[in-house]
Amino acid sequence: MATAASKTPAAGISQVRVFVDASTGMRGFMHPNAPGETGSQFQRSITELLSNINDQRASNTAAPAYYFVEESTAKNPNALRPTTYAELSNTVSTGIQNPALGTEMPNMLREILKLQKGKPGTVSVVISDFIYAPPDAKQTWKVKTDVKDALNEAPASDLAISIFAGTSEFRDKFFPGNRTHFQVLKGSRLPYYVWVLGQPAAVAAATPWLKPLMGNDFERVSFNTLAPPAAVFEHFGNVGEWYVDKTGSRQTQPLTLHFTKSLSRQEPAEFVLGLDLSNAPAAEAASLPKQLQLDDAGTGAILAKVWAARDEPKAPRSPALPTYTHLARVHLERLPGRKAATVRLVLPRTQPTWVTKYTTLNDSNIAAQGPKTFLLSEVLQGVQDYYDQQPAGREVWALPVQLQPAD
Hints:
Blueprint: E1 15-21, H1 41-54, E2 65-69, E3 80-83, H2 85-94, H3 105-116, E4 122-128, H4 143-151, E5 160-174, E6 183-198, H5 200-205, E7 219-223, E8 230-233, E9 242-244, E10 246-247, E11 250-251, E12 255-259, E13 269-275, H6 282-291, E14 293-295, E15 302-308, E16 326-332, E17 341-348, H7 353-357, E18 359-360, E19 373-374, H8 376-386, E20 395-404
Helix pairs in contact: 1-2, 3-4, 4-8
């Protein structure tokens, strides 16, 4: 069986900071409720998320910090107003009493990343409708550049971004991104977003308290995040003579195989990896058998098979198999030279289908369109462009496996 690698992300969080957009445009998600009403989907999900975050106050170096995102003015250029958990949670559940004019989304991201700079382990959670258009309607082609420029406040190699998209009832004035006249909505569903930003290990460590955003009611896309938990099975589907590097009972990271005998076409090696995608988006997990690829690093290794663990007939007799959602078999016939080689299991990046579904180029009559966000695809293209020179621009994640040839 596999001697499982740790399935709990390393404790990489020093502080969680929460930013809630308190502009007039968000009031439709955060409205007063009559006795007996259950609150909007936004109110229920975000209230639970805030409670989970507040529970982390004793777990990290510093207690969580809370902010309203308001307007930036000449007198007060800082759009981030510190608040308390109690005030923020109460505002979400009972409504925005004094809504702000708001600040442009790129400026909001820039200010949040500035606040995060030089503070390793900080995770920023940003809650907003993320509707953005430049003041000049002739400049909408520039949306992706504005988003990219804002994110450049932090180095792309050291910033992970997970974006969660939900929809909720909206009851108030809706202000279109294309700056036409507002519309009064009485329960139409509109999208809202939660962006989680921080170093990759810190964002991975945030997974347990992000559970309210991981149900079927939410879509998700992530950049520069860690590979899923994985391990090599030592007594299941293995061929050839090799062993796995361990520290105590746990497999080392990166996963490392030591071969005790030379390989050939007549005497190849095979090993099976377990992958745990239980915290991945459902669409990502479902597509893995068809989408997963192997970067063979010149070894000629082949990804022979990828399949769901539930479809493995030996699973009930193998105690470690149910720990993982997917299995991947690698076939290897040679290792070039005497130096170690590192192959990588890679999930290539593709644009999620929900992005197109949630995008509109004209939100002047949003009630007739269904849940859509003005120029959402351009906003996310800005994120993609920010990672253009990084592996994260091409890969959702990559899992390295080091192969050490026989002496």
